[in-house]
Amino acid sequence: MSDDFDPGALFQIEEPTAPAASKRAPGRGIGIDLGTTHSLVALAPHGEMPREVKDAEGHDILPSVVSYVGSEVVVGARARAAQVANPTQVISSVKRFMGRGRDEVGAHPYPMAAPKDEADQVVRFDMGAERAVTPMEVSAEILRVLKDRAEAELGEPIDGAVITVPAYFDDAQRQATKDAGRIAGLRVYRLLAEPTAAALAYGLDQTEGGKQGLFAIYDLGGGTFDISILRLREGVFQVLATGGDSALGGDDFDHALAAHLLEAAAVSAPTAQQREQALAVARSAKESLSDAQTVSVEVPTCGLSGFEVTREAFETLIDPIVRRTVKACRQTLKDADVGPDDLNGVVLVGGSTRVPKVRAVVEKTFKRPPLCDLDPDRVVAYGAAIQADILSGSAREGVTLLDVVPLSLGIETMGGIVEQLIPRNATIPIGARQVFTNYSEQQTGMVFHVVQGERELATDCRSLAKFELRGIPQLPPSMARIEVSFQLDADALLTVTAKELMTGIKQTIEVKPTYGLDEAAVDALVMESLDNAEADFEARNLAEGRVEAGRVSLAVRTALEEVGHLENLLPAAERELIVAALVATDEAMANASGTPGELKKAREHLETVSEAFARRRMERALLSGMEGKSLGEIESTLAAEEALEERRGSHTPQQT
Amino acid sequence: MDHFERLGQPRQHALDRDALETEYLARAAKAHPDKVDQDDASAKRAAMETSAAINEAYRTLRDPAKRAEYLVKLGGRDLDSSDPDVGAPKMPQAFLMEMIEHRERVVDARSAGADALDDLREDVDGQQGDALAEAVLAIAKGDTEAASRHLVVRRYLQRLLDEIDDEG
C-alpha cells in the first residue's frame, strides 16, 4: 500500500456537488442499543441528559425477541413468553446471525428456507405460511417498535438514529445492521461502537479535570464481547485499539449452565422445547447467582427438580469463556501500546458484567476496581442518544469521536494469500488504493475478493465481497493500470471505486456481498415496508370510511323512519332513489375487499340524493319556529304532532 | 500537499511527538464528518476525504520507521515499488545470504527453547534499530540512496521479528 495520499486522485466518486438545502432537525435524533438479548431506545434532545424511553406499561428494556407465531408479528416480552411453547417460530438473539452466512451460524432451532441458488449464503428463517425472514428483517421489527416508542414520546417524527454495534463487528455485520435500520424506515446517522458510546455516556471527558485520560471499556453483552482502549486529549476521544469476539457473551454462560442442567437430568438428546426451558432456567439461575451463593432450580420438561447450583460450580463452568475475554484484553492493551498501570479507569458495560466472576477477572487484569456507576444495561443507549443529538444538529457541547476499524482489510492475491490494505486499529475514515494490471490484451474484466481478518490465507478470513471490474480497455499485457480505491467511512463501512489510469476510463464495479443482501434486495425490502405502511394507511382509511358512511346512513334512515312517509317532504320518486342509495351504501360497507374510494363514492351518492330531503326538513324546522333545538328533536316533535293530526282527521292542512 | 504539511510539521525525521499529537487531534476533530450537516452529502464526503488524508498522514508520521520510509519516498525511492529506478534498491547477494542465515538461526533457537528465542529476538531487534538509525543519519545528509538501502535491511529484520513474535 502506498503511503502517499492525494485525495484528489484517490476519490473519484461522482456526487452532485450542489449543497443540499439543510433540513436539520435538532433534537429529533434517537439512540438505539440493538442488543443480542435486549434493546433500548434513549433520547437526549437539545443537550439534555440522556433518558431511556418507556413503553405504555413502563418498561424501557425490550427483549430482542420476535415471534412469528400465527399471522401477527410480536416483539418483546410477549414474544419471549411464547418461546418455550414455539421454539421454532420465536426468534431470539438474532444479532448473532447478522452479517453471517448459512455455513457460519452454527446450531440453532430455526428452520431455514432453501437457498435461492448454490451461491446464496443469506440466512432466511422459514417461519411457516410461506414466510421467510432474514436476520435484517427480524432486527428491523425490533427497531420499528423502538422507533414508534420514541416518536410517541417526542410527539413528532424522528429525523434519524444512531444505532450501536459491537466494536468488533466486521463490515458485513455493520452493513447488516445499517440495512436493518433502513428496512425499519430509519435514517441511520451513524453506527457507533458500543464501548465508545459507553465512554461518551460516562462523560469521561468531564472527569479528573477533563484534560487527559486513558480508559479501558470492557463490554460483555448477551452475545458479544468488546474491549476498547480510549484516550481523551484535547477534547477528542480517540480509540487507540479495540478487540473482542463478536460471538462471545452472557448467552454462552447460559448455554454452559443449561448443558450442565441437561447433563444432570440425564437428557442426552433434548428436544427444542427442553432446551429452551433449560436455557430459560439457566438464565434466571445465573442472575440469582450474582447475589446468592447457591440456587435451587427446576426444569420440569426434563424431570429435574430441586437441583442445587452453587456459585462456585457456575464459575467453574464459565471459566473458559471468561478466560477468552482476558486474552482479548491483553492483546488490545498490546495493540494500544499501553500497560494496565497507564490507565486512569476501567468501565464495565453490558448486563453480563454483573456476574461477580467477570468483575473479579477484570479487576485482576487491569489491576484496579472497575467503574460501574451507570447501569450497564443502559449506558450504551445513553451514549448513542448523545451522539444522535449532536448529529441531529443540536448545539451541544461534545467531544469528537475518532474510532478505529477493528479488523484488517485485505484483498486476495495469487495463491489465496491476503495482501493487507488497511491494518486493524487504523483510525477511520481511512482509504487505501491498489493498482492492478492486465495479463492479456483480450482481458476486459477482473474479479477480486475483499476479505477482513488477521490471517494470512483468504480462506481463514471473513469474505466480505467479490468485485468485478469490467470495461478494461484493450491494452498490451501489463499496460492497463487499474487503480482500485477502498474507502472506510466513519461507520467503518467499505466502498470501492476504480479507474483505469492509462485512459482515465472509470470502471463498472459489481458488488456481490458474500453474506449480506445486495443493494437491490435491501431497496426491495425498504419498498416492501413502505408498501406495508401504505397497506396500513389503506386499512385505516377503510375503517374511517366505514364509520363515516355508517353515520350518514344512520341519519338518513332515522329521518326516513320519522318523516319519510310525508309526501310533501319526500316525493315518492326521490324516496326510491334514497332507498337505493342506502342499499348501495350497506353493500359497500359490507364488502370486505372494498376500497376506501368505493366507500366514499357510495356515501357521497347517498348524501347527494338525500340532500333535497334534508333541506326540506331543515326549512320545515325553521318555519315551525323551533330554532335552537336540534333537528332530531324538532323532527320528532313535528312528526308526533303530525301523527296526532293524521289520527284526528284526514284533512290535515299542509304545511308550507 | 504531503503528510508533513498536512499535519503542520517540518519535513524532517526528528519530530516533537507531543506537538505532532496535538496538531493531529485538532485537525482530525475539525475535519471529522460528524462536524458537518448530515443532510449535505457532498460536505459529508469532502469531510470524509479530508479526514482520511489526515488519519493516513498521522499513521505514517507517528511511526519512526514509516516516517523514514516516507521521507525516502519523497526523495525518490518508493520501497513499495519494485521498479529498479524509483523503487526499492536491489540488494547485494551477500545481504540475502545473511538473511537466510538469520532465518536458520530462528529455527534453531525455536528448537533450543524460549530463552534462546528471547536472546535472538533481542539481537535482531538491536540490529533493526541500528538500521533505522543509520537510515535517519543518511536522510539528514540528503543521501536517499544510502537511506533506502538501510531501510530495506530494516524491513527484512522487522519481518524476522514478526515471525519470531507470531509463533513465539
H/E topology pattern of chain B? HHHHHHH
The whole-angstrom Rg of chain B is: 20 Å
Do you know the CATH architecture of the largest domain in chain B?
Up-down Bundle
First-residue to last-residue Cα separation of chain B: 42 Å
Give the total of beta strands of chain A.
26
Q: What portion of residues of chain B belong to β-strands?
A: under 5%
Count up the helices of chain A.
Answer: 15
Approximate helicity band of chain B? over 70%
CATH architecture of the largest domain in chain A: 2-Layer Sandwich
Whole-angstrom Rg of chain A: 33 Å
Show the largest interface. Answer: A-B, 45 and 39 residues
Distance between the termini of chain A: 99 Å
**Largest sheet of chain B, if any?**
none
CATH superfamily of the largest domain in chain A: ATPase, nucleotide binding domain
The pLDDT mean of chain A sits at 84
Reading off the top of the CATH hierarchy, the class of the largest domain in chain B is best stated as Mainly Alpha
| Number of domain units of chain A | 3
Large-scale geometry of chain B: elongated
Report the top-level CATH class of the largest domain in chain A.
Answer: Alpha Beta
Low-confidence region ranges of chain A: 1-22, 649-656
**CATH fold-type name of the largest domain in chain B:** Monooxygenase
Written overview of the protein:
The complex is a heterodimer of chains A (656) and B (168). Chain A has 656 residues and is of the alpha+beta class. Chain A has 3 domains: 29-250 and 317-402, 2-Layer Sandwich (Nucleotidyltransferase, domain 5); 405-517, Substrate Binding Domain Of DNAk, Chain A, domain 1 (Sandwich); 522-648, Substrate Binding Domain Of Dnak, Chain:A, Domain 2 (Up-down Bundle). Chain A contains 15 helices and 26 strands. In chain A, α3 crosses α4 (171-183), α6 (250-264) packs across α7 and α6 (250-264) packs antiparallel against α8 (311-336). Chain A is globular, with a radius of gyration of 33 Å. In chain A, 44% of the residues are buried. Mean pLDDT of chain A is 84; it is low at 1-22 and 649-656. Chains A and B meet through α10 and β18 of A and α2, α3 and α4 of B.
